[in-house]
Structures are given as C-alpha cells and as structure tokens.
Amino acid sequence: MNEIDLRTSAVCNNRCIFCMERNDDLQKGGRNKKKFLTPKELIGKIKNTRGLDRKIPVFFSSGEPTVNPYLLELVKIVKNAGYENIILQSNVRRLSYIGFVRKLIESGVREFSLSVHGSNSQTHDGMTRVTGSFEQVWKGIINLIFLKRKGFKFKMGVTCVVTGINIGDLRNFFKKFFSIKEMDYVNVNTLILRGNALKYFDKLAVKYSDIVAQCRKFMAGQVNSGRTVSRPGILGLPRCIGAGLENPFSKIVVFDIGENRPSEHLTQEELFRYGKLIKCENCVYSSDCVGVQKEYVERFGDNEFRPKNK
Predict the structure, then answer these.
(1) Among 82, 98, 189, 244, who pairs with 54 as Cys (CB 3.0-4.6 Å)?
(2) Separation of first and last alpha carbons in the chain
C-alpha cells in the first residue's frame, strides 16, 4: 500500500536519545538548521501527487509536526486536495492543549499516531530526556479520550521504540495502553539505526528476539487470565523472527523537506537502508520482509534469522 509522508518540521521539543533524525554531535555544532514546511511549499508538493488514490494515508511526520506554526493550515490544504485519511504522528506534548486538538480534528486529522516510550514518567522521560514530557503525554491522551467520548470521529494509537532503557517496562506499557478501550492499536518499533540511535547504539541496542519474547509473555499472561488476547504489532521486525507479530513496512512516497530536492518514490527498506542476508534468498517471506540493518548484524550476528525455505 502506498503512503504519503509529509516531513513537516525539522524541529522537535523532545531530545530523544534514540532519535534517528537527531544527532547530538551535530546539534552541539549548530549544524541542525530549523525549518518548517510552509503552506506554499506544500501546495507545490501536492501537485506532484496527481494520479494517486485520495484514500491513501497522508502522514504529517518528521521532527515534531505540532511545533510547526502552519500545521492547521497544512492539514486543511491536504484535506482540500481530497485526501481522506490524514494521520498526525506526534510526541503528544502539544496535544495536552484540548483546544488545539479540537482544531486539528476540525481541520481534517483523522488519526493520531502517538509516540510514547514508557508506562511512567521515569521511563518515558528517560527516553525523551525532557522532564515532565510524560505528564504532558498523559494529559494529551486524556484529551483525545474525552473528545472520542464526545463523538469526535478519529482513530488513535501508541507506538513505543524499544531500547535497552525501556524493554523492562514493555509489559507494563502493554497493560496500561491496551486497557484504554478508546485506543485503536498498540505497536512497538525496532530501532532505526541513524542519528542518535546509531551514536548510542551500544546503550540502546536490543535483540529482536528479546522484543518478541516480551510481547509473547504479555499475550500468554492474557491467555492465562482468561482475558481477550490483544496483539501488539512490531514495526521493522524480520518476519522469520516473529511471525504473526510483525507489521511490515509498506511502500511510501517520501517528501523530504530537509533537503532541496524533488519528491522521491522510495520503499522503507531503501529509505532506512535495510537489506537481506544471503541465506534469505529462498525464504518464503523474502518478498514482503523488511530485512535487517547491517549495523544490527555486525553487533548481534545472524543466528536469530532462520529463513523458511520455499
């Protein structure tokens, strides 16, 4: 399935230790220039999407979209271009202002994809490196729940990037967010090894199989208690490691506002430099598996990967 990714902001109000778009060394050197996608730029980019199905998802992403002062106008431009499925990816902090959330929904946002990285302040704030960020996140989620109960129509879900800092909190994370009936999905994401994620790799790296084990333990606990089993999805997971849990990357259309170049049609594998091992060539999953990043294999080896041969 195609997606459109609108890179809305090169600025973020968090300082996530795992961020693929932030590099602390560059920040200190002052090389990270602030830039926002403007309405004029977006109108030009939207023209490049002629011929695309207007039902495909349009993501506002990159940096933190909610700090872009033009965001409401940008959403309206996309809506007026006929796109029906507008998704905001956010660290949730500015969603703690309920009036702003209302305006986003009224402008055309139909889904909130929320980046939350712990079940509590200690864990989440440790990941974002901003004291008080979890408090704002929780207030933002309460606002979304309130508006859903008032009849506003939108989807919402949380995604947690799993690292060595928060993997011990993962089952508590699942318990907390799966217990919210208004939550449409709960996903976890593997590290994308760029920026800070690569800089602090030794501190952050977690084996895929360890993430899968935590997910399966949570699901087993639900079975044992007689509750309906909620299945978390894992983004960026090779299929041979966690069949049934993986949520494969799909093909997207990328509009990169970080550089002055035309839009590119890329797969997520190409964008984030994933590749396949030699032993994966005859695997039945090969055609729709994300593969693996070379830095991961250099650190952990390839024993985890057990292709299912055709």
Answers:
(1) 82
(2) 25
Domain that holds residue 167: 4-275
CA dihedral sign of residues 14, 114, 230, 148: positive
Measure the CA–CA gap between 33 and 15, rounded to whole angstroms: 15
How far is the C-alpha of 240 from the C-alpha of 150, rounded, in Å? 43
Within 180-293, where are the H helices? Answer: 195-199, 201-204, 208-225, 268-271
The Cα 226–Cα 224 span in angstroms is 6
The H or E element containing residue 75 is helix 71-80
The beta strand positions in 94-195, using DSSP E, are 111-115, 155-161, 185-189
Tell me the CATH number at 46: 3.20.20.70
- Note whether residue 307 is domain-resident: no
Count CA atoms closer than 13 A to 49's CA, side-chain side: 25
Where do we find the tokens 């909190």? 169
Q: What is the pLDDT of residues 97-121, one digit of tens each?
A: 999 999 999 999 999 999 999 999 9
> Is there a domain that residue 303 lies in?
no
In the predicted structure, residue 250 carries a pLDDT above the cut 50: no
Question: 54, 64, 123, 121: which is closest to 89 by C-alpha?
Answer: 64
Give backbone dihedrals phi and psi of 251, rounded to 5 degrees, phi first. -70, 135
- What's the domain count of the chain? 1
**Model-level pTM?**
0.88
In a domain, 284, yes or no: no
Is 166 among the domain residues? yes
